[in-house]
Amino acid sequence: MITIVDYQMGNLRSVQKAFERTGHEAHITSDPQEIAAATKLVLPGVGACGDAVDELRRRDLVSPIKDQIDSGTPFLGICLGLQMLFDVSYEGGEHEGLGILPGEVVKFDLPHGYKVPHMGWNQAKFLHKPPIFEGIDEGTYFYFVHSYYVVPKDQDVVAIEADYGGPFCAAVWKDNLYATQFHPEKSQDAGLAVLKNFAELA
Predict the structure, then answer these.
(1) pTM for the whole thing?
(2) What are the two backbone dihedrals, phi and then psi, of residue 41, each rounded to the nearest 5 degrees?
(3) What domains, with CATH codes, occur in the chain?
(4) What gap in Å lies between CA 104 and CA 108, rounded to an integer?
(5) 3-state DSSP assignment of residue 156
(6) What is the mean pLDDT, run by run of 10 residues, along the chain of 202 residues?
(7) Catalytic residue among 25, 169, 185, 200, which?
(8) Using N-to-C axis directions, what is the helix angle for 62-71 and 49-58, rounded to 10°?
(9) Catalytic residue of the set 49, 79, 118, 146
(10) Catalytic residues per the record (predicted)?
């Protein structure tokens, strides 16, 4: 069962429906025990990192999420679900993240002519090709909506870069952990292919 973490931030139903379109059932829950029992775990979200982590803590969801990642359960973070994985976010001040990956979340500092948020379609450049991107070509477009981006301390975890006034991390991969800055559920056929590949991981 694919389990989607519900912490009241983001349109969880759109992620669930996208999985259903690939032929895979997904369950939305905020129950720590159900999250602890998931065979695949998805952490989506839209909004500010500090508020999101606070909400996860309030619902006692941090430990089961971390335990699942540590135990080798396939994990997919989407947008805010990527940013929360890191040590600190500077969105609206300085806020502690989940500390699963070392690094920080910073705001775009862009040349003249670039708008924030970065919103729309952008191309993927593979640095490493995670299994969930099997069958997806270099230069494929995915859909982004964000004002902040992650800067991992360990550049080896950066799987995909995109360019918006300069390169930025568009996806990370470490062992069973996958996370994207873009929204697969809004990225049409390419995004559905990513979700299908995740759902069918061994």
Answers:
(1) 0.97
(2) -130, 135
(3) 2-199 (3.40.50.880)
(4) 13
(5) helix
(6) 92 96 98 97 93 96 98 98 98 96 97 94 97 97 98 98 98 98 98 98 93
(7) 185
(8) 90
(9) 79
(10) 79, 183, 185
